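Example (one chain per record):
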Amino acid sequence: MASCSTASRPTVSALRRFNLESMWMKNRRVVAVENIPRSLQERSQWVCWKYIPRPKGKPTKLPFNAMKGGQAKSNDPNTWTTFNKALDAFQRDTTYAGIGYVFSEDDPYTGIDLDDCLDEQGEFIWGKDIVDRIDTYCEVSPSGNGVKMIIEGVKPAWATECVVKGQGPKGDGKVEVYNRARYFALTGHRIATASEGIMARQEQLDALCAELWPDKPKKAPEPKPAVEEGKPSKNFDEAMLNRMRTCLTEIDKMKVADKGDGSNRLFAACCRCVEHDLPDDAALAVLAKYAKHKPFPSAWGSKSVLKRLRSAEKKVERGAAKKRRSGPSMLSVGQLLKDHPELRPPVVNGLLRIGETMNIIAPPKYGKSWLVTDLAMAVATGRRWLDAFDTTQGNVLILDNELHSETSANRIPKVATARGIELPEIADKLFVDNLRGRLLDVYTLQPYFESLKKDFFKVVVMDAFYRFLPKDSDENSNANMTDVYNRLDWYAAMLGCCFVLVHHASKGNQSGKSVTDVGAGAGSQARATDTHLIMRQHQEDGCVVVDAAVRSWQPLDSLCLRWSFPVWSIEDNLDPTDLRPERPRKKPKPKEEQQSGVPKWTKDSFVESFVSDEPTTMKAIIAAARETGITQRMARDMIQLTEDAGLIHRWSFGANRPVKFATVPQPSLVGTET
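Predicted structure:
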């Protein structure tokens, strides 16, 4: 199977001894993926390509639809796909010779192709002055004899031709300039002396076109606005103007980072226009005004903007902003009960429903990420979680900004094996996006979430939550944290999912705190969420006590978990009230108290005091013993000793039910003991 190298790939200076075209056909592992600019990889304008023989001349490179296999068209976006899908198709299908990027009117890029400008050693025969002057991303063509450059810039309208032949000392070279309806077969083998990224080079492009087509009538291009307003179809009335002002105010507050050409921010702005139910002419006017004081990196024509408005209509609900407004929307009790006869659908019974958020809080390095991975697998497969909580099966997305991809790939199979889950069961149900180093916070994730299909994910996990907080926010500020949770509620409604947030506890011992007081930061974190689940250390090593404050469920009884790498499991034989306390320095006891001490217990006296012929749980026996001053550990030891001595007998009641102890044997076991 073909593959692509992710190691550092050679530039033209390291390819001098190779004939790239023959190597391309014999060894397809030559696409230097890591050198291809990220701004191109983020666009869904990719195809695969093949060498197709021709009766005369060298083979031609034809584009192919990476998803359906037929021939692609450079003027039909339905035959293009994403970078990753094209790359995957290239890796799987050995008939493909490579991948290619299609130029369109919707992107800000222009491609410049210099054919037959390199010799067999990779040295420039001609064209180096053009490469140096343009100074943008430049790579070696698949043939090994030419180079391709990509710039940010618009080909002048007067430059209607695309090809100029007769270049170089022998006149066999040519220059081609395209900005739409053509594709470039890309190799990623960057020219070492050129820029690593795609640069804005409008002035240099205009000058090059003037050299290539000197006889064409030139007209200085008029400056193009960042977003064209188009022609309003009517004057706006006061109600529409108010709606436009409200929409513009909301767009101004967006915290969406530009990537490359700014298309992410433009799409987010288009989504706001749709939510405010703006017609196209009003939306264009709002976006043009927004672009004047917060310009986009690239210019966008009204045609491109209208396409994004159509895409936004598929993503968000038209008029949704009206529903979000704070004006009166009260219902009579009768109407309320009629409209909402049932609670929201459960995802984790007893803990979480669709549209809700759940915090999972524990001290750092406490195993909470392992616990959440276990939860994710339970939901993805529809299994019970911790053998205590039923789940509703659905896809799960883990957004992990602490672990590297390699660490996640190492952990997931371990948890699956421990739970008896075959990897194919979760292969297309559990998704992981390792965001470490990508500098995304809860606000800049908006375009990310807007790109997801509604109802596709049932649970979205954010681990670790503190790394999703904006750099200028304060986790100790109730106002800041309330705003963050409001944003998460909006995302949950938009995606039709629930959120699980993995967060750390504050420093110090947590045993003396109430459930909602555990967790680093402002108290609003516990109040704003629907379920606040915490893990605190038990007296027994390797065990924790789990408590939860819930909003839409019956109160949850405390439970104990025991760690057995790589999963937590229910431990019924521990007392959940036996939290590990803070350990202040003990004061020396008075002599008389030291001498009196605690009565010494024998096996007989222990049984006589705490066990009878009525079966009693270990938890109840330990609780009664502790009231007399016996420690939990001593009580557990005495239960074991008295059982070994035959003074008490174990009663079993089936799987997942606690055992009990009594001074008489269980009836079904009479006659079987030795």
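Caption: The longest helix spans residues 478-495.
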